[in-house]
Design brief:
Blueprint (H helix, E strand, L loop, with lengths): L2 E13 L6 E6 L8 E4 L3 E8 L7 E4 L25 E7 L5 E7 L9 E7 L14 E10 L4 H11 L7 E4 L14 E5 L4 E8 L5 E6 L4 E6 L2 E8 L2 E3 L4 E7 L6 E9 L11 E8 L20 H10 L17 E13 L7 E7 L2 E3 L7 H7 L33 E3 L3 E3 L3 E9 L8 E5 L4 E8 L4 H4 L10 E2 L1 E4 L3 E9 L3 E7 L10 E6 L20
The chain binds CU-O-CU linkage.
The site of CU-O-CU linkage has 11 residues, from strand 5 and strand 31.
Cofactor: Cu cation
Enzyme class: oxidoreductase
Protein name: Laccase
Length: about 550
């Protein structure tokens, strides 16, 4: 195993994806930011120097951070932000996970431009990939672009409850040919007959995406840095936070083919960015025709059946101990996820959106980080009384209830404390209060087993029988079906404070979140380590 070291200089960069020059925050003058490549078992050291005008933190999305909870990165959860002019060094090992993860800013909406791929290949000398060795590996970062300043947009959203829709989607930072004026189109040159491992990441702020390549199938071999049984499909769905590893074989007649990404919109009657980002797959042969690329036909924006089929067909590749589902559950939770309203004095319209879990709308502290409060025993920052079920049982998926009990959730910083090594099961129940839509729920620090998902209200008697306890897919982000539910399990084997939240940035700051506090275990190595000396002060 080796040490991989990077320096991230965060600063202003001028870019013009839609032909207009814009100043954005970026890492090392690149948009998207640098790709980090490591092997399983390596230690990654990243020196972050903040030369930007904003507070910054970097989150290593999907990394277990075993024994290194101080380096997880969400601002005011595991650390205070790195202030302009300050720096902080992240240092952690990538153990027991392989595949595609990514890194992104975890403060305000800065991850719109502060993100990059984190690729973990198998260790040298081990069996390698559990699928045919690709000739080449290609990161494909799907993003969402705004012409406006995203920090201003977030402030405006919190004040008014109305969110601007984005101006473009991007593939590796470029919108592509279909926009009236685009800085360019991402091109992937392929040799006929060769195999390519596409490492697809949805870094968009607020949109799930369908992704397709004209006339080509994809063989999904991993999601969220866990291996899957090979799954052949012509379309993938990626929610913000999720990743897909898929093999592409260049087995079609030499020509040019578009790859395309477009929104999957589960919420009815909503305004959204209906544009399509494209890249081009070009066969490198002398007889490749010069004709314009062939366009794939993407699913309709609201094609929930296609999204659901993709999400539920995939199974995990049970090849290593970590893929074995724990059968004994210590903590059972039923968590409603959805949107309510916030009676809000400073909101222009009198009320803004208040996302909530079990009727608690999570307020992220701003005096010190939650992890420091946990380590030092500081009271008054958060409480450990997040409820294991909603205070009321009602028809969660009925959007026409005249008076909905959860209209105005409580604002609080209530967390769920769990004993070291406990197995936690969560039923996420999507609600239709105010608005119904698919919410991608991300757990920091752990992968979970996705046991089942479906539509309507979760039925304890009937739906428990549908659990896959044999080879469920493992993920760090579950897209809870629109008007439906999903059940996951994880083993809380890492002391720390771990955020659980909707990965739509339009919902996290409104409170669609909570956190797990995993308490210390009995041995020295199962206790919260002290904070690193350079941890930023609030
Ligand atoms: Cu990818 Cu809490 O984030």
């Amino acid at each position: 195993c080796s040490i991989v070291e990077h320096t991230f200089k965060v600063g202003n960069l001028s870019v013009s994806p839609l032909c207009k020059k814009r100043v954005v925050v970026a890492v090392n003058d690149r948009f998207p930011g640098p790709t980090i490549r490591v092997r399983e078992g390596d230690t990654l050291i990243v020196h972050v120097i903040n030369d930007s005008p904003y507070n910054i933190t970097i989150h290593w999305h999907g990394v277990f951070q075993r024994g290194t909870p101080w380096y997880d990165g969400p601002s005011y959860v595991t650390q205070c932000p790195i202030k302009p002019g300050a720096s902080f060094t992240y240092k952690f090992a990538l153990v027991d996970q392989e595949g595609t993860l990514w890194w992104h800013a975890h403060v305000s909406w800065l991850r719109a431009t502060v993100y990059g791929a984190l690729i973990i290949r198998p260790r040298i000398g081990q069996s390698g990939y559990p699928f045919p060795k690709p000739d080449k590996e290609i990161p494909l970062m799907l993003g969402e672009w705004w012409n406006a300043n995203v920090v201003d947009l977030e402030g405006n959203f919190i004040r008014t409850g109305s969110a601007n829709i984005s101006d473009a989607f991007t593939i590796n930072g470029r919108p592509g040919d279909l926009y009236p004026c685009s800085s360019g189109t991402y091109k992937l040159n392929v040799d006929p007959g060769k195999k390519y491992l596409l490492r697809i990441i949805n870094a968009a702020l607020n949109n799930q995406l369908f992704f397709k390549i004209a006339n080509h199938n994809l063989l999904v071999v991993g999601v969220d840095a866990s291996y899957t049984n090979p799954y052949k499909t012509d379309v993938v769905v990626v929610a913000p936070g999720q990743t897909v590893d898929a093999l592409l074989v260049a087995n079609q007649p030499p020509a040019s083919y578009y790859m395309a990404a477009r929104a999957y919109i589960s919420a009815p009657n909503t305004t959204f960015d209906s544009t399509t980002a494209t890249g081009i797959l070009v066969y490198k042969t002398p007889n490749t025709t010069k004709a314009s690329p062939i366009m794939p036909s993407l699913p309709a924006f609201n094609d929930t059946p296609t999204a659901h089929k993709y999400y539920t067909d995939i199974t995990g590749l049970v090849s290593r101990p970590k893929y074995m589902v724990p059968l004994n559950v210590d903590v059972k939770m039923f968590i409603t996820v959805g949107l309510g309203l916030s009676p809000c004095a400073q909101c222009a319209r009198g009320s803004g959106v208040a996302g909530s879990m079990n009727n608690e709308s999570f307020v992220i502290p701003n005096k010190t980080s939650m992890l420091e409060a946990q380590f030092y025993g500081t009271s008054g920052i958060f409480t450990k009384d997040f409820p294991d079920r909603p205070p009321l049982v009602f028809d969660y998926t009925n959007s026409s209830l005249p008076t909905v009990p959860f209209w105005f959730p409580n604002k609080s910083t209530r967390t769920r404390s769990v004993a070291y090594n406990s197995t936690v099961e969560m039923v996420f129940q999507n609600t239709a209060i105010v608005a119904v839509e698919n919410h991608p729920i991300h757990l920091h620090g752990f992968d979970f087993y996705v046991l089942a998902q479906g539509f309507g209200n979760f039925n304890e008697t009937l739906d428990r029988g549908k659990f896959n306890l044999v080879n469920p897919q493992m993920r760090n982000t579950i897209a809870v079906p629109v008007g439906g539910w999903a059940v996951v399990r994880f083993v809380a084997n890492n002391p720390g404070v771990w955020l659980l939240h909707c990965h739509l940035d339009v919902h996290l700051p409104t409170g669609l979140a909570t956190a797990f506090v995993v308490e210390n275990g009995p041995t020295p190595s199962s206790k919260l380590p002290p904070p690193p000396a350079d941890l930023p002060k609030c």
